Amino acid sequence: MATNGKSNSGKWAGLGVGLLVFGGLAFSFVRSHADTGPGYTTQKVQRGDLVQTVTATGTLNPVLDVTVGSQVSGRICKLYVDYNSMVKSNQIIAEIDPSTYQAAFEQASADLANAKANEELQQVEATRSSELFTNKLISRSDYDTALATLHEAEATVQIKEASLRNAAANLGYCKILSPVNGIVISRAVELGQTVASSFSTPTLFQIANDLTRMQIDTSVDESDIGGIKQGQPVDFTVGAYPNRTFHGVVTQVRNAPTTLNNVVTYDTVIGVTNSDYSLKPGMTANVSIVVARHQHILEIPNAALRFEPLDTALVQTNASSSGTAVLANHDHQPPRSFTHKSNARGARDWSETDPFHTVFILRPGAQSGTSTLEAVQVTTGVSDNIQTEVLSGLKEGDQVVTGLIIPDLASGTKPRNPFSMGHHF
User: Torsion-angle region of residue 249: left (phi > 0), alpha (psi -120 to 50) or beta?
Assistant: First the structure.
């Protein structure tokens, strides 16, 4: 029994020593990784080209689109054009049965002839009455009656002449003419169809003046309209040619607002050249209006503007900020839209009051293997939603922090932040 007791005591002692050793190793492991602290991903400030655009959607339309109707009612007896027919100005493109209007014209002509004959008779009567009245053979009353009858006959002639002109015009309207040179893009009638113009003018044809010159009518949000100017270049695509980029230019920014679901937009007209007739009226265009194009400028990724360090991170203020207070982390804002402004550099034509942001640069620490974040206040310019122009506060080659790497204590590794970019340390 004594031997067994001594054996159990040895086991418990060995177990206690093992626990102490394991606890010491675990504490040393955790402490060594805790001392390591978080890591950071960075990207170098470099020069490049930035293009800032405003995107919108619109519809392709002919520059001049004419709707051809009919001013008279009747049956379509002749059609001279069809879809895609090329037409000239004043060319006959259809005819309405003229039988009724021809009869009305002939009747008006006969009425005018009758009125003129009566006018001649009354003229003779008035002349005879004048002679008799001079010789005092008729009374003044009879003479006045003869003159009034003559004037009535003259008025009747004028009425019949107007009726004849109206009948001639209606007869002429039976021939439908093209008002412009162009191409027929729509035909709304068939041969033998009856059109009625009693209350409104019916639409017969739609003619585009020139499909080699088209326009895109697009709506731009009120927050972006300040940067849209006449003459700015435009790139756009259509669903029919997904791998082809077309080009245009802003020709007009209209002042009339359109409000839909509390969103205010303004119609922006974009001129397009369509020499190969590949673009067709009604196509939906995805438009990118180039509002600024800056070349060889300092740029940083937008992730650097969104980065915020941990509360426990050691951050020092950039001494070159000339006493200007560093913005709080929660004040970080992504680049915003700018309005037109020119300066001595010439390339910059798209700016508001330059927005300030705080970014962080990774500086080597005093101890080996440590690093310090330095908060730097920068002035930003244009942005393409990926990169942002830096106007002041940074120089080429600076390493700006774009993301945070938290140590994995279980594996002892530093997984890369999937939302960051650049190098990591």
Answer: beta
